[in-house]
Write the structure tokens for this entry.
Amino acid sequence: MPTLFRFLMTLLILAGIVYGAMYALVLFVEPNRGEMSVRIPPERLQPPR
């Protein structure tokens, strides 16, 4: 039984670390916002028949 308890505690601690890392990413990382444009050559819009 102590082995099962130790295993479950290890899993809980690892889950807490992962959850904390995800929470820190949400708080401290800002996404880059901006307009994006991609030029498409006319040949790709109307392929030859």
Summary: DSSP finds two helices and no strands in the chain. The mean pLDDT is 91. Residues 41 and 47 are 11 Å apart (CA to CA). The radius of gyration is 25 Å.
